[in-house]
Amino acid sequence: MIAVKISDNRSFLSALFTRPVFDTFILGEAQITTYTTFRIDGTWHPAYFSESLGKSSAAVPLSSGQDSSHRKMPAAGQVSEHLSAGNGQPVEAPENGQMRAQEPSWARIRPIVRAIVSGKHSPLSFRIILKMPDKGIQSILTSGGLSCKVKDVNGLFLNITYQNEEILCTSGVSLKTFTLDKSLDRIWDDMMLRFFAARSIALELQ
What we know:
The protein is an alpha+beta fold. It has helices spanning 9-17, 79-87, 106-117, 134-143, 183-198; strands spanning 3-6, 26-33, 37-40, 125-131, 153-163, 166-175, 203-205.
């Protein structure tokens, strides 16, 4: 694990909330405190997009004069198309046949979080946990010549915390089984440093 302090808060927050710098990640969870605390648990609910549930709709009424055709949700068969377009992380079927849960992309959640933090006042604090998608994990394992598989990895994390006007980013690796081999940790730490450097994000190692 590495921990870095962001040197230029304004530039980093612009990259995080207004530009697609982190959009390749998926959201683990987020908690933002402004005048109240907002929590997003990162759970993806594909049923929201489905019209095949056979239940009556309780959609929020539209304002007068608004065409209902513009708010139609995609049918169940279209969900995968929207997921691949960045609305969520596609499901993977590992060798044991169990399905990994879908998760929303940061690209999908970013405008919502931006709306929460926007305003005259800065947030009191926030914590955002971003995760590498499964395709990225697979690429890292392959390029690093590591023997473990995607299904053995709970996640490769980038934890971003803001408190007392300081931004701290920490990397993290979670595996499903204990191992003394820290190769994946070292590769992920190095990747995070190179990720920041390639995007000219000023930081200080802690």
